[in-house]
From TrEMBL:
InterPro entries: MJ0683-like, rSAM, rSAM_sf. SUPFAM superfamilies: Radical SAM enzymes (SSF102114). Residues 65-236 form the Radical SAM core domain. The lineage of its organism: Bacteria, Bacillati, Actinomycetota, Actinomycetes, Kitasatosporales. Pfam families: Radical_SAM (PF04055). It comes from the Bacteria. The keyword NAD does not apply. The keyword Ribosomal protein does not apply. Residues 318-347 are annotated as: Disordered. GO terms for molecular function: catalytic activity; iron-sulfur cluster binding; metal ion binding. Keywords: Iron, Iron-sulfur, Metal-binding. NCBIfam families: rSAM_Rv2578c. This is Radical SAM protein.
Length: 347
């Protein structure tokens, strides 16, 4: 089905918002389709697309590309919520429904990668908000972004909860033939009830694991970021076992657990949700996160140990830190560009 046939849209330009959005003009659209009911898109021509991660960051990468801001996956715990406040947008429901789209992201990136000042550093995607959220089905920015990276043989990684990544399977395979590519899927738990309330806009965990299986079956090895492990709701031994088992069955090459963290912006929204859905847990959370955004070290260590033991039991290799798994281009002796799945080698 074509969007054009389904969509009735409204549009208006609001130059007054432009400075906040880092653009000269903002075009605001809504679409009268069930998939985008209640969602407003702010289309901008961004002035920059490669973002340097601040030196103090805990992240294991230096450069990111984020074609969207806000995320319709609407995870209650999303740490990126606070970034919406920089745009003068609401960090709660506004983060889930007011989506900024950098419609010129592919062209901008292609130009930037060609600059003599760019030295081909690793580019991470899906690190702020999900680049394969539902909006990507409409705006199709990722094929242009992946093509630009492929054409410059620029290493990159993608982290997502979106099943839409399978649309770009061929581009991922082509890229992996010329550079290092890492793909990780985020699945913190498999409990369907927990998913429906805490990740209401994201594909179901099993559908994400199906993505892992499909990628693996097509020669793209895929790790799972088991995040977040949610205290008292998703961290029972039986829940951890079921999740790690499902991840192993899906063919993931590694599993990296990460306990829930609650930074400002996310914390208020999550705690309001907790009070509504699990009021008896509010005091326990206040105690567990009394010292800040992160669960205590003892808790993080316990989860990591449990998950690693289960991973070993189910035959998965040890996780290699928090970086997405990388894929090395095929050895020269292998068939170049033969039809069918490309055989890739993990670093
Ligand atoms: S998918 Fe990722 S970016 Fe989107 S709401 Fe969930 S945690 Fe946030």
């Amino acid at each position: 089905m074509r969007w054009e046939n389904l969509t009735a849209e409204t549009r208006h330009d609001r130059p007054a918002d432009a400075a906040l959005f880092g653009a000269d003009t903002v075009t605001t659209r809504t679409f009268d389709t069930p998939e985008f009911a209640g969602i407003t898109f702010h289309e901008i021509h961004a002035r920059s697309i490669l973002n340097r991660v601040p030196g103090a960051s805990r992240m294991p990468f230096e450069w990111t590309v984020n074609p969207y801001r806000g995320c319709t996956h609407a995870c209650v715990y999303c740490f990126a919520r606070r970034t919406h406040s920089y745009l003068d947008l609401d960090t709660g429901i506004g983060f889930d429904t007011q989506i900024v789209v950098k419609v010129n992201a592919p062209e901008l990136l292609r130009r930037r990668l060609a600059s003599p000042r760019w030295h081909g550093e690793h580019v991470a995607m899906g690190t702020n908000v999900d680049c394969y959220q539902r909006a990507e089905g409409r705006y199709r920015l990722m094929p242009g972004i992946l093509s630009a990276l492929r054409d410059r043989a620029n290493p990159f990684s993608v982290l997502t909860k979106g099943t839409l990544i399978l649309r770009d399977l061929d581009l991922l395979r082509q890229s992996a033939e010329v550079t290092e590519v890492g793909v990780s899927v985020s699945v913190g738990f498999t409990d369907p009830e927990l998913w429906r309330t805490v990740e209401p806009g994201a594909p179901a965990p099993q559908r994400r694991l199906d993505v892992v299986r499909t990628l693996t079956d097509h020669g793209i090895e895929c790790g799972v970021l088991m995040a977040p492990v949610i205290p008292f709701l998703g961290d029972e031994p039986a829940q951890l076992r079921a999740t790690v088992r499902a991840i192993a069955v899906a063919g993931a090459t590694s599993v990296t657990p990460l306990a829930l963290h609650l930074r400002p912006g996310a914390r208020e929204w999550f705690m309001a949700w907790l009070g509504q859905h699990h009021p008896a847990l509010v005091r326990r959370y206040e105690r567990l996160y009394a010292d800040g955004a992160y669960a205590p070290k003892w808790y993080q260590r316990r989860i990591t140990r449990q998950v690693h033991e289960l991973a070993a039991e189910f035959g998965m290799g040890p996780a290699r830190g928090e970086t997405p798994r990388r894929i090395r281009r095929p050895a020269p002796a292998e068939e170049p560009a033969a039809p069918g799945p490309t055989q890739l080698t993990l670093l």
